């Protein structure tokens, strides 16, 4: 009986307490990471896809006639400037040189004889023993032999140069990209031997729409990336702006040069080149992680006091990990960059602020 009375009294006492004493507390503030909205100067740029070419691409040709005696390189070989690439059989020229040298020696002997005879003629003429006519003949003979010697000497030098040309050498340092002849083939003067390309420095050829062409400047930085080589960035620059448009496409040729680190990039690859257009404007920037997409809306969560409000924005140009926004935001507003996936407007938050980064 006493126990039942105690329970009834406790129940009666509890009915006299306010309902708020038993109400549950609201959810704790959400932990978020925030960053501040910044005002930055952005330079407009555009990405154009171009094709990689060697800086130098030469079709090496024979400078003399003859049969190929030896080929000293293969496709893909790297060669230095002046390295011998191919040798033409010099036997025919060597025989011609022997004949020319023999003729030169004979002419030199005839010239020495003519010189002695002229000297003797002068002596006899001075003694009035030899007529002026015979003296003139001696002088003419010496001059004729000198002329013949000059001609033969020029012929000897020409044959020697021709023999040197039988050794075809690299005009610059590069890589053999194509072989155009084989041992035993007969080459004429000017016939192609092989193709040599300098891939230490690359040339990226672009066709730029006419609306961008007037905004480009020679020497401006033009970094490039390649889909086939992820992670590689080429530090290029504009070295040629060709003011002659394609009449059909209305594009202008632009040439970008860049070093080829470790010779990774090959001719013919596609490169994405970012061209600076020269116009600089200020923009409000937030980290890309601050952008939340809900249904058809793009928004950021701005922290006001200890709660957040959802602000619709429009995104614009990107700069590294930052992106341009326009909307009801201002410089130094704090926007949520981590923990914003489950937020609701008006929700209380506990924040940790981190500096914005472009890297």
Could you characterize the architecture of this molecule?
There is one protein chain. The protein is of the alpha+beta class. It has 3 domains: 30-42 and 282-353, conserved putative lor/sdh protein from methanococcus maripaludis s2 fold (Beta Barrel); 47-55 and 199-281, Elongation Factor Tu (Ef-tu), domain 3, CATH 2.40.30.170; 90-165. The protein has 3 helices and 20 strands. The strands form 3 sheets. Strands 2, 4, 7, 9, 10, 11, 12, 13, 14, 15, 16, 17 and 18 form a 13-stranded antiparallel β-sheet that branches. A hairpin with a 2-residue loop joins strand 16 and strand 17. Helix 2 runs antiparallel to helix 3 (132-165). The longest helix is centred in the first third of the chain and has 36 residues, at 91-126. It is rod-shaped and about 140 Å long. The two termini are 78 Å apart. Mean pLDDT is 88; it is low at 1-24.
Cα-atom Rg, whole angstroms?
Answer: 44 Å
Class by alpha and beta content = alpha+beta
**Mind telling me the CATH class of the largest domain?**
Mainly Beta
Total number of helical segments?
Answer: 3
- Identify the CATH homologous superfamily of the largest domain: Efflux pump adaptor protein, beta barrel domain
Instruction: Please bin the fraction of helical residues.
Output: 10-25%
Strand content: 35-45%
Helix-strand pattern: HEEEEEHHEEEEEEEEEEEEEEE
What is the subunit arrangement here?
Answer: single chain
Named CATH architecture of the largest domain = Beta Barrel
CA-CA gap between termini: 78 Å
Q: CATH topology of the largest domain, what is it called?
A: Elongation Factor Tu (Ef-tu), domain 3
Shape descriptor reads rod-shaped
Number of strands: 20
